[in-house]
C-alpha cells in the first residue's frame, strides 16, 4: 500500500472515531449517569492526561522505523479500553477508563502526524490530500452517529468508537511501501529538551496552545449547550459536519491557496477566525449565525493546524520533527485544552453559552506573539 493511501485510510478511520468521541462522548457519559460537573471533570482530566500519553509515547519513538509498531500497539490497546466501557460504568470506572482512554487513544494522532511529516520529506506527500479524508470521516461520524443516537440511544456512540478502532487495528498490520525511513543524515531524533531549546519552539507552543486550547468549550460542551437550546442530535451533527466541511476545503486546496503562506501567517489567520467565531457563538444560537460560526472552523482549526504542520515539517524538519510533534500534541492539543475545559466545566452552569467569550479572550495574546516571525534566527538568515 502506498504511503498516501495508508495515511488516507489511517486518518479516515481515526477521525471517524474522533468524530464520534469529540462531539458525542459527553452525551454518552450523560447517558451513563454522569452529571454535567462530573462530565466536565472527566473531559478536562482526560485532555490533560493526553499530555502525559503523548509525551511518553512520542519520546519512545526515536527513529522512523518505530512509527508503525507504535501505531499498531496503540490501536489495539485503545480498542481494549473502549470495549471495557460496555461493562464498567460506575463513577470510579468512568474516571479510570477515561484516563486510560486519553492516555492511549490520543497518542495515535501524533504518531500518525509524525509519519505524515516524515513522508512529506521522504516522498513529497501531499499532506492536505491525505488529511482531508480524516475530515470527511469526521463529518460522516457526526451525521451517522448523531442519527443513530437520536433513534436508538447513546449506546451507539460507544458502538461507533469500538467499530472504527477495530478497523484501525486491522489497518495497522497492512504493509506500506516504501516504509518510513530516516533522513540521509541518519541522526536519531532529538530529545524533547533539545527540541525545546530550538529557536521559536517555545513561542510556537504558546501560540498553538492558545489557539487549540480556545476550542475546549466548543469540543466539550457545544453538543450539550445546543441540545439545551432545542437542537436535536441530528442538527448538532449537521452543525459539526458543516465546520469540518469548511476544513476539508482548506485541506483540499492547501497547496493552491496557501502553499506560499508562512507558518506565522497561517497562525495569525487562525487567530482572527477563532476570535470572530467564539464571539459569535457566545452571543447567539440563532441558526444563521451558528452556520457562519461553523464555517469559521476552516480558519480557527484548519489554518492553525496547517500552520503547525508547516512549522514542524519545514522549519524543524529532521531530527527535531518527532519531538516537536510530541510537544504540539501534548501541550497544544492536550494540556492547554484540558485546563480550559476543566475551567469551562466550572463556569458553564453559571455562564452558559457566554463561556465562549472566555475562549475569545484566550486567543487575543496571539496577535502580540506573532508580531514577529516564530523562528527569528531562521528569518534573519
Please provide a written account of the structure:
This protein has helices at residues 3-31, 36-60, 67-84, 91-104, 108-122, 127-152, 155-171, 192-196, 201-213, 216-228, 233-252, 254-258, 263-283, 287-295, 297-315, 321-351, 355-369, 376-380. It is mainly α and 381 residues long.
Number of strands: 0
Largest sheet: none
Assign the CATH class.
Mainly Alpha
Mean pLDDT: 86
Rg over CA atoms: 19 Å
Instruction: Identify the CATH architecture.
Output: Up-down Bundle
Helix and strand pattern: HHHHHHHHHHHHHHHHHH
Strand content: under 5%
For CATH, the homologous superfamily is named as MFS general substrate transporter like domains
Task: Give the helix proportion (percent range).
Answer: over 70%
Task: Tell me the distance between the termini.
Answer: 40 Å
Globular, elongated, flat, extended or rod-shaped: what is the shape? globular
CATH-derived topology: Growth Hormone, Chain: A
Q: What's the number of domains?
A: 1
Structural class: mainly alpha
The count of helical stretches stands at 18
Poorly predicted ranges:
377-381
Amino acid at each position: 500500500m502506498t504511503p498516501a493511501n495508508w495515511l488516507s485510510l489511517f486518518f479516515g478511520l481515526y477521525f471517524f472515531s474522533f468524530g464520534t468521541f469529540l462531539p458525542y462522548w459527553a452525551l454518552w457519559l450523560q447517558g451513563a449517569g454522569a452529571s454535567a460537573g462530573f462530565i466536565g471533570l472527566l473531559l478536562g482530566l482526560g485532555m490533560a492526561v493526553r499530555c502525559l500519553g503523548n509525551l511518553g509515547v512520542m519520546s519512545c519513538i526515536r527513529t522512523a522505523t518505530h512509527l508503525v509498531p507504535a501505531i499498531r500497539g496503540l490501536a489495539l490497546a485503545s480498542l481494549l479500553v473502549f470495549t471495557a466501557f460496555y461493562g464498567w460504568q460506575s463513577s470510579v470506572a468512568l474516571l479510570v477508563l477515561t484516563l486510560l482512554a486519553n492516555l492511549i487513544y490520543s497518542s495515535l494522532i501524533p504518531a500518525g502526524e509524525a509519519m505524515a511529516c516524515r513522508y512529506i520529506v521522504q516522498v513529497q506527500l501531499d499532506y492536505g490530500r491525505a488529511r482531508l479524508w480524516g475530515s470527511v470521516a469526521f463529518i460522516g461520524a457526526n451525521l451517522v452517529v448523531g442519527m443513530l443516537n437520536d433513534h436508538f440511544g447513546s449506546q451507539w456512540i460507544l458502538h461507533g468508537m469500538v467499530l472504527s478502532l477495530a478497523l484501525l487495528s486491522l489497518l495497522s498490520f497492512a504493509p506500506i511501501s516504501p516504509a518510513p525511513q530516516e533522513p540521509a543524515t541518519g541522526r536519531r531524533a532529538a530529545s524533547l529538551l533539545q527540541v525545546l531549546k530550538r529557536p521559536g519552539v517555545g513561542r510556537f507552543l504558546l501560540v498553538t496552545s492558545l489557539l487549540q486550547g480556545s476550542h475546549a468549550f466548543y469540543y466539550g460542551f457545544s453538543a450539550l449547550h445546543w441540545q439545551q437550546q432545542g437542537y436535536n442530535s441530528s442538527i448538532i451533527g449537521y452543525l459539526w459536519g458543516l465546520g469540518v466541511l469548511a476544513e476539508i476545503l482548506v485541506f483540499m486546496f492547501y497547496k493552491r491557496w496557501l502553499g506560499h503562506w508562512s507558518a506565522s501567517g497561517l497562525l495569525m489567520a487562525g487567530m482572527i477566525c477563532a476570535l470572530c467565531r467564539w464571539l459569535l457563538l457566545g452571543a447567539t444560537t440563532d441558526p444563521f449565525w451558528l452556520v457562519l460560526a461553523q464555517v469559521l472552523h476552516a480558519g480557527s482549526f484548519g489554518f492553525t493546524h496547517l500552520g503547525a504542520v508547516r512549522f514542524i515539517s519545514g522549519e524543524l524538519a529532521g531530527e527535531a520533527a518527532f519531538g516537536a510533534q510530541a510537544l504540539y500534541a501534548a501541550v497544544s492539543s492536550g494540556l492547554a485544552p484540558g485546563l480550559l475545559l476543566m475551567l469551562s466545566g466550572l463556569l458553564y452552569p453559571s455562564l452558559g453559552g457566554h463561556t465562549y467569550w472566555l475562549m475569545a479572550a484566550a486567543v487575543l495574546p496571539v496577535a502580540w506573539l506573532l508580531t514577529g516571525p516564530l523562528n527569528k534566527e531562521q528569518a534573519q538568515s
